[in-house]
Amino acid sequence: MAIARFAPSPTGDLHIGNLRTALLNWLVAREAGGEFILRIDDTDLERSKEEFVDSIKYDLQWLGLEWDRLERQSLRLERYREVADDLRESGRLYECFETPVELSLKRKSQLGRGRPPVYDRASLNLPNEEIARMRSERAGYWRFLLDRASVAWRDQIFGEVSIDAASVSDPVLIRADGAFLYTMASVVDDLDMNISIVVRGSDHLTNTATQVQIMEALGRKPPAFAHHSLLTGPGGEPFSKRTGDLSLKELRSGGMEPMAILSLLATTGSSESTKLFGSMDELLEVFSIGSFSTAPTKFDPDAIARLTARRLSGLPYVEVATGIRELGVPDDAAEAFWLATRENIAVFNDLSEWWRICLKGAEPSVRDDDKEFVGQALEMLPDPPFSTDTWRNWTADVSRRTGRRGRKLYMPLRKALTGRDSGPEMAGLMPLLRHVRR
Ligand code: GLU
User: Which among 4, 36, 289, 363 is least surrounded, fewest beta carbons within 10 Å?
Assistant: First the structure.
């Protein structure tokens, strides 16, 4: 069975970049009728915050990306200890004592000699007395002894990948304070939870190579991998504050619709063209992880706004009935109000202004040279309530009386009644107007 996981560290709010990872994992699981695990990578106790665990869950639920199981690494420390012991016993975990300053000096000197800054294994094979002496000075931390060979796998996006582990430092799995680092916890979880496919950013390609070796050292077969490319700004520039940190919280408060966000993220960077999908089922029909490209993916946040407006313009009343009631629109006008306005809003919240206009009338916007015309026309307009024929009959009468036609007839009247030069079709809006400011 396909089992995928999304494994955020609760050190911040979800943003568009990690949402893409979440979504792709959700899709590969659902596509195969498998399981989707939300795994909270919270072994870093200082940086992990409960409020971010809550906000990650809230965001995923808001988007409809439900998980079948929730796991937390902080509850699995005992298990990591066990596996660390196994690795120690098999000689693949060794204790190191270099300080960050010493390591940085080593790196500098390697680079100075034109060598890759790979850890030189100076702590490997320290004599026991030396280890004891070092331990009395400071706590050691633990590195996994990589096999200096190339690691190859068939990536579901990148195709054949081969990484030479000789160019990678032995990864630290356990810190001096005993904390398990991401690589250790992730490997153990992926194995214990029988993860069958890992979808994550291409910034993890090297991690994957080391993780594959650790899995093999534990006598297990690694899962399948699919590394997606990273998002860039619309011009191909590295992700900026504006785009990279675009959080779900901001998108939600900006009125963006979940299906607009999901439609865009599920298709950008794939061979599937971006369009608005009506539901996740529709999206699943075209989704294929293999259709994603390895090239950095340009991401245009404005596309979310465009898809949001499109989504709203086609939504049937039943889907928004509650929201419309919350605006205070009475039930007998609610559906007509929605049908009149839905094609003329950028975000759902725009409706509150339109309802205010219906209820209280708008401050008329009238050009000086239209004043007389508008005054005359408004005198010819009966008091509300209006019907669906009001606009046609009234403008016909006004045209007969004043001789005005077309835009010169309609635009000043629209602006007089709504205060704006664009908006819903007036014929549909008139029956909703409760008040006209004259
Ligand atoms: N917590 C890791 C991260 O957010 C998970 C990476 C992975 O998917 O293995 O980068």
Answer: 363
Rg, C-alpha atoms of the chain? 31
Mutate-to-test residue for ligand 1 from 43, 48, 53, 186, highest number of ligand atoms within 8 A of CB? 186
3-state DSSP call for residue 437? coil
pLDDT at 235: 82
In one letter, which amino acid is 161?
V
Render pLDDT for 38-59 as a digit per residue (tens, 0 to 9): 999 999 999 999 999 999 999 9
**Token reading at 124:** 């490997």
Which ligand 1 atom minimizes the distance to the CA of 18? 4
Question: For residue 10, how far is its CA from the centre of ligand 1 (angstroms)?
Answer: 11
User: Measuring CA to CA, which residue among 223, 222, 225, 217 is closest to residue 147?
Assistant: 217
Residues 234 and 287 sit within 8 Å (Cβ to Cβ): no
Q: Give the pairing of strands 141-144 and 150-155.
A: unpaired
State whether the beta carbon of 41 lies less than 6 angstroms from ligand 1.
yes
DSSP conformation class of 419: S
**Can you state the percent helix, strand and coil of the chain, rounding each to 5?**
50, 15, 35
Rounded to whole angstroms, the Cα distance separating 46 from 3 reads: 30
Count CB-CB contacts under 10 A for residue 408: 13
Residues of the chain with pLDDT under 70: 240-244
Q: Specify the amino acid at residue 282.
A: E
State which ligand 1 atom lies nearest to the alpha carbon of 201: 8
The distance of Cα 315 from the centroid of its chain, to the nearest Å, equals: 23
Question: How is residue 366 written in tokens?
Answer: 């009238």
Tell me if 349 sits within 8 A of 255, measured CB to CB.
Answer: yes
DSSP code string of 333-374: HHHHHHHHHGGG-SSTTHHHHHHHHHHH-------GGGHHHH
